[in-house]
Design goal:
The chain has a six-stranded antiparallel β-sheet, sandwiched between helices. A six-stranded mixed β-sheet has the order 12-13-11-10-8-14. The chain is of the alpha+beta class and 552 residues long. It is built from eleven helices and 14 strands.
Length: 552
C-alpha cells in the first residue's frame, strides 16, 4: 500500500541547488510588459534629454566665453595702443573703468621689470568714474601676477580662467608687453548657464512626466490586442478538457490574428495550436468512445457465455456419474476461472458505464451500517487479519448509490487484505465533518512501493503481481473506487509508508439527514473525543461481523 496523493516534491539527494538569480533580473521580472516599455521609453528620453542639455549648455558657455574673450582683447588693445596702433605710455588704472568693461572688472599695472605699480577693481555699485575703483588685496594681486608670469612663459598669452579670492571666477588676459593684466568677471556667464540648466531640467522633467502619461495610454492601447489573446488563452485553460466531450471552440478574434503585426502573429499561432489540439482531442474522444463501446458490448455479450460455462461445469460435476479426480479438478478450475472472468467482465462493464456518465441511483444512505457489513464480510474472507471499526456517535448521512458505495468499501478492504500479510491490523474509520463524511481504511502492512504510488488508481495497476493473481485480483478494484467516488462528487487520496498505509474517501454530506438520529449501539460507537467513537475490535473467533460490542 502506499503514500499519500498530495506529497510535496523533494530535492534529490546530491542535486545542486539552483544558482541565485541576479538581482537585476529579479527586480526586472515582476514588472509587466506595459511598465517595462514605458520605463524604457522614459529612460531613453531622459538620457537623450540629458545629452542634448549637456551639449546645449557647453555650447552656450563656450559662445559666451568667446564673446567675453573678444571684449577682453578689445579692452586690452585700447589700454595699450593709441590711435594708429602706437603704444601708450600711460601708467594709470583708468582702463579698469573704460567704456565697454563690465562692473567688477579687475586690473593691475606693471613696470618693465614686472613689479606691480597698482591694482584696482571697478565697484559693482558705482558708475564709470575713477571715484569707484577699489584696490585689490595682496592675495588677489598675487594671483594676477602669477598669470603674468605664465603668459610670459607662453610667449603668446591667451585668456585664461582664474579664481580670485573673495571675488569668484574671472576671465583674465595679459597684455603682450606684460604691462597690464585685465580680468572680466564670469558672473553673467555663470548666471546665464545656471538659468539655462534650470530651464532644461524643468522642461526635461515635464517632458518625462508627459511622456510617462502618454506612454501608459499609448502602450495600453497597443497591448490591448495582446490582452485579448491572453484572455482567450485563459478561457481555454479553464475548459474541462480532461473529461466529457471536448469542446474547444475558443479562438482569437480575426482582428488580433493579423500576421502583419507581432501580436497578430501570436494570435494566429495560438489559433493554429488550438485547432491542432481540438482535432487531437476530437480524435482521442472518438477513439475512447469506440473503446468504451466495445468494452461495454463485449462485457455484456460475455456475461451469458460465462454464465453458461459455469452452469454446464456445475451440472457436469453434479451429474449421476461420479467424475474422476482429474475431471473434478478440471471442472473446479473451469468454475473458478469462469467466476474470475465474470468478475472481470462485471468490473469492465461498470467502468464503461461510469465513463459514459450514466446517472447513479442515489438515495438517502447512512454510511456507517455499510461499513459494518463490509468489515464483517472482509473478516470472513480474511480471518487471519485483525479488523477494527471506528464509527461516529451518530449517523453519517450521504446521498449515494448504496450498491456502488458498498463496492467501494469491499474493494478497499479487499485491497488491504490482498496486499498485506496475515496478522495485519486493518482499521475502518468513519467520521462526520462539517460538509463531508470521511472514510479511512488504514493498515499497518508493509506499504506501497514509491514508484507504484502515483499509479494505484489506474486500471490494471498491481503491486505484487503474483500475490494479486493468486488472490483473484483483476487490477480494477482501486480504479472502480476512484470512478465511483468521483461520480458521487467526492475524492479519494492515498498515503503510504512502511508500516502504515491509509486510503481516505471524502463524500459530500447529505444535510437533509443531519437531524435524523440513529442509535449509536447499532454501529458499535463509543463516546469518543471530538465526535469519534471508540474503536471496536472484531474478535478472531467471532462467527459474524455483526456481533460487535460497544464501549462507552
Amino acid at each position: 500500500m502506499a503514500p499519500g496523493l498530495a506529497r510535496g516534491s523533494r530535492r534529490a539527494e546530491g542535486e545542486p541547488r539552483d544558482a541565485p538569480e541576479p538581482r537585476r533580473r529579479r527586480l526586472w521580472r515582476p514588472w509587466s510588459l506595459r511598465t517595462r516599455l514605458v520605463v524604457s521609453a522614459v529612460a531613453l528620453i531622459a538620457v537623450v534629454g540629458a545629452a542634448i542639455g549637456a551639449v546645449t549648455t557647453l555650447s552656450l558657455r563656450s559662445y559666451l566665453v568667446d564673446r567675453l574673450d573678444d571684449q577682453l582683447r578689445t579692452s586690452v588693445g585700447m589700454a595699450t595702443r593709441g590711435p594708429g596702433g602706437k603704444p601708450l605710455r600711460e601708467s594709470g588704472l583708468g582702463f579698469v573703468m573704460a567704456p565697454g568693461t563690465p562692473l567688477g572688472t579687475v586690473g593691475i599695472r606693471l613696470d618693465a621689470d614686472g613689479n606691480v605699480l597698482g591694482s584696482a577693481r571697478s565697484d559693482a555699485i558705482g558708475g564709470p568714474s575713477l571715484d569707484h575703483r577699489q584696490p585689490l588685496t595682496d592675495a588677489q594681486t598675487a594671483v594676477l601676477t602669477q598669470a603674468v608670469r605664465k603668459a610670459a612663459a607662453q610667449g603668446r598669452p591667451d585668456p585664461v580662467d582664474l579664481e580670485l579670492p573673495d571675488l569668484g571666477g574671472y576671465r583674465v588676459l595679459t597684455a603682450p608687453e606684460g604691462s597690464l593684466v585685465l580680468g572680466f568677471p564670469l558672473d553673467d556667464v555663470d548666471s546665464t548657464v545656471r538659468t539655462l540648466i534650470a530651464v532644461e531640467a524643468f522642461v526635461t522633467l515635464a517632458g518625462l512626466v508627459a511622456a510617462s502619461l502618454a506612454g501608459q495610454v499609448l502602450v495600453g492601447v497597443a497591448l490591448r490586442p495582446l490582452r485579448r489573446v491572453a484572455a482567450t488563452a485563459t478561457r481555454v485553460s479553464e475548459l474541462p478538457l480532461h473529461s466529457g466531450e471536448p469542446a474547444l471552440h475558443e479562438r482569437v478574434p480575426d482582428a488580433e490574428a493579423d500576421p502583419r503585426t507581432e501580436v497578430g502573429q501570436v494570435g494566429a499561432a495560438l489559433n493554429r495550436m488550438l485547432g491542432h489540439v481540438s482535432s487531437a482531442l476530437t480524435a482521442r474522444q472518438q477513439s475512447e468512445t469506440r473503446v468504451r463501446q466495445f468494452v461495454a458490448d463485449a462485457s455484456h455479450e460475455l456475461r451469458t457465455p460465462l454464465a453458461s460455462i459455469r452452469g454446464y461445469a456445475e451440472l457436469t460435476r453434479r451429474g449421476r456419474e461420479e467424475p474422476g479426480p482429474d475431471t473434478r479438478h478440471a471442472l473446479g478450475r473451469i468454475e473458478s476461472e469462469a467466476t474470475r472472468m465474470t468478475g472481470l467482465v462485471e468490473d469492465l462493464l461498470l467502468l464503461a458505464r461510469l465513463d459514459a456518465g450514466r446517472p447513479l441511483s442515489r438515495t438517502d444512505t447512512d454510511l456507517a451500517p455499510l461499513v459494518v457489513d463490509a468489515v464483517s464480510d472482509a473478516r470472513a474472507a480474511g480471518p487471519a487479519h485483525h479488523w477494527r471499526l471506528e464509527l461516529p456517535d451518530g449517523p453519517a448521512p450521504i446521498r449515494a448509490d448504496p450498491a456502488r458505495i458498498q463496492q467501494v468499501l469491499v474493494n478497499l478492504l479487499a485491497n488491504a487484505r490482498t496486499h498485506t500479510p496475515p496478522g495485519t491490523t486493518v482499521t475502518a474509520h468513519v467520521s462526520r465533518e462539517t460538509r463531508a463524511v470521511r472514510l479511512r481504511i488504514e493498515d499497518d502492512g508493509p506499504g506501497i512501493a514509491p514508484d507504484l504510488l502515483p499509479h494505484v488508481f489506474e486500471r490494471f495497476a498491481r503491486g505484487d503481481a503474483s500475490r494479486s493473481r493468486s488472490a483473484g485480483s483483476t487490477g480494477l478494484g482501486l480504479a472502480i473506487v476512484a470512478a465511483v467516488v468521483s461520480a458521487h462528487g467526492g475524492q479519494v487520496d492515498v498515503a503510504s509508508e512502511p508500516g502504515r498505509t491509509r486510503f481516505e474517501v471524502l463524500l459530500p454530506l447529505d444535510d437533509r439527514d443531519e437531524d435524523t438520529g440513529t442509535d449509536a449501539d447499532v454501529y458499535g460507537a463509543g463516546a469518543g473525543v471530538g465526535g469519534h467513537g471508540a474503536g471496536v475490535l472484531i474478535p478472531a473467533d467471532s462467527q459474524t461481523g455483526h456481533r460487535l460490542t460497544t464501549q462507552r
